Amino acid sequence: MNRIVVSIAAGVTTVLVVFAGGYGYHRDELYFLAAGRHLAWAYADQGPFTPLVARAMSEIAPDSLTVLRIPSALAAGATVYAYGDWGPPPNGSAPVVAVGLPLADLARLRGCRVVARIDDGLGTDNDEQGTHVDVCRGPVRPWSQEWPALRHLG
User: Fold this and answer.
1) Do both 113 and 69 map to the same domain?
2) One domain for residues 35 and 69
3) Distance of CA 115 to the CA centre of its chain
4) Tens of pLDDT, residues 101-128
5) Which residues make Cβ contacts (< 8 Å) with residue 61, sequence separation at least 6?
6) I want to staple 20 with a disulfide (CB 3.0 to 4.6 A). Which of 14, 56, 63, 66 is the partner?
7) 14 and 80 part of one domain
8) 3-state secondary structure 75-104
9) DSSP run (H or E) holding 55
10) Domain-terminating residue out of 66, 85, 104
């Protein structure tokens, strides 16, 4: 277990919890609390999990923004831990799907071919429109050597 990653994840969680009560409700939070008061198996826009969590937090401490926001703070810390603690893929693992990787970084992968381009079908002018999707056989060098340069591209 990487102590630095654990420390950063714990720090993120702590900061989010400490400052959770420092600003008012977000409209989504109000919606989740309302849905939690009328629990159902599904809603038009989501499943039952988030309203159930909101209901549980409001049962623990009604009207507490800090308690309501603890699950999302824990999820943020877990995300930092999960992303930060992943090491390189095992050497020899393949294939690699690269979406919108610049040519300089794509050169670190071998046997790449464009298999698709992102198209929303509406002709929307945004950064993603026309982005190439490549499938590559793997890195040019072992992952342990390429990982430091490629790990932050996601």
Assistant:
1) no
2) yes
3) 25
4) 888 888 889 999 999 988 888 877 888 8
5) 67
6) 66
7) yes
8) HHHHHHHHHHHCCCCCCCCCCEEEECCCHH
9) helix 49-60
10) 85
Q: Residue 28 burial by CB count (10 A; 0-12/13-18/19+): exposed, middle or buried?
A: exposed
Q: Phi and psi (nearest 5°) for 63?
A: 65, 20
What are the backbone dihedrals phi and psi of residue 57, each rounded to the nearest 5 degrees, phi first?
A: -65, -35
Residue 76 CA to residue 142 CA, distance in Å, equals: 31
User: 114 has which bridge partners?
Assistant: 134
The radius of gyration computed from the CA coordinates of the chain, to the nearest angstrom, equals 21
The Cα–Cα gap between 41 and 52 comes to 10
Q: How far apart are CA 98 and CA 117, in angstroms?
A: 11
Q: Are 90 and 117 in contact (CB under 8 A)?
A: no
Q: Are residues 33 and 65 in the same domain?
A: yes
Q: Is 0.70 surpassed by the pTM of this model?
A: no
Read off the pLDDT of residues 5-40 as tens digits, 9 standing for 90 and up.
899 999 999 999 999 999 999 999 999 999 999 999
Q: Quick one: 78 and 11 in the same domain?
A: yes
* Structural domain count, the chain: 2
Q: Are residues 117 and 54 in the same domain?
A: no
The neighbour count for residue 134, using CB atoms within 10 Å, is: 19
CA distance 152 to 84: 10
